[in-house]
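Example 4.3 (complexes with small molecules)
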Amino acid sequence: MGKALIIGCGGVASVAIHKCCQNSEVFEEICIASRTKSKCDALKEKLSGGKTKITTAQVDANDVTALIALIEKEKPDVVLNLALPYQDLTIMDACLATKTHYVDTANYEPEDTAKFEYKWQWAYRERFEQAGITALLGSGFDPGVTGVFSAYALKHYFDEIHYIDILDCNAGDHGYPFATNFNPEINIREVSANGSYWEDGKFIETKPMEIKRVYDFPEVGPKDMYLLHHEELESLALNIKGIKRIRFFMTFGESYLTHLKCLENVGMTSIEPIEFEGKQIVPLQFLKAVLPDPASLGPRTKGKTNIGCIFQGVKDGKPVRYYVYNVCDHQECYKEVGSQAVSYTTGVPAMIGAMLVMNGTWRKPGVYNVEEFDPDPFMDALNKWGLPWQESFDPQLVD
Ligand code: NDP
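Answer. The structure with NDP bound is encoded below.
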């Protein structure tokens, strides 16, 4: 069918690339391009022998000119951005200049402000429309599958959805006192920021970890979870008809939270540069350098993730409750692609998003979030490509 250019070669990219190679009918060719080319070459080596033709390249994705040159050389049908949120806009600029479709998994965040919002990427809408190309934003799990779940619920079971609770549970144990399951810098920026939820047309801000609930997750058991701000709240609030409240909860163990508090208290999570031995360093970036690489957690992590959405609303005037979720086993993921479930649950939907844009199923000129497309082909693909979902019409609710 075609060719994808994948930018970034970290935890999520590695899974997406494995999945593209399993799906060689669609991904006949891929080019893996990242800041450190040796990682791309190592992955190419590991996956050689399959049907997908793989090439690699070095690129600094902050450099629009270099990106344009790479896209012109490789001529991909779609660019799948699996670098960091800081690179979203430069990669979108390069896609515009070369009229190439764009897919990512995380919204843009300026490096000097820990504030992720869609406004910067939504500002590209008209330019993508005029260029006749599609940008698909947030095709990971959350955001990503959570938006697809929302569109699916609305399409099949509700006239109006009034309440959405997104529950992200990672019950995996990697045996370290403290480590993050994906890029530590991005992860810690997310969890140390104020929380917020959407209610009656506006965001209500909370202190970090202020709101705690316990939820008994299917196949996992009861876990403490905390309300966080999360990027899909912003797009779902606009795109889901009748919505009154959306909340996002993520589980954290006590050890993780105690370590994080301590690191915060001593200033290690700050993104303000400080001078150290005559050099400017960002404490959070230094912390990232001393923490275990998320990619190294794969072989050690045991247990499951359970991520899903609970919807409440009405159909034909009657109240409806609906819970749809995926359970993923860290060790099964490791056996299949050499990564733990957090990278797996993001990398699989990234491949699916790129596939649907590439094969034309999800293609319309402009900039879109996943819930703006027909959810059915994505839901089918989740079952086929390793993230089967389950549903319940009588779930435990979150108070
Ligand atoms: P990693 O840190 O493991 O990987 C990031 C990759 O991007 C690395 O290969 C890195 O290169 C490369 N990179 C960084 N800067 C540049 C640059 N300037 N030019 C080229 N390449 C660059 O991160 P993850 O794989 O954990 O996360 C990838 C993305 O997925 C992030 O945006 C993250 O926010 C998102 N994500 C989304 C989720 C969702 O459910 N929607 C969940 C989890 C993550 P190098 O090897 O040189 O460092």
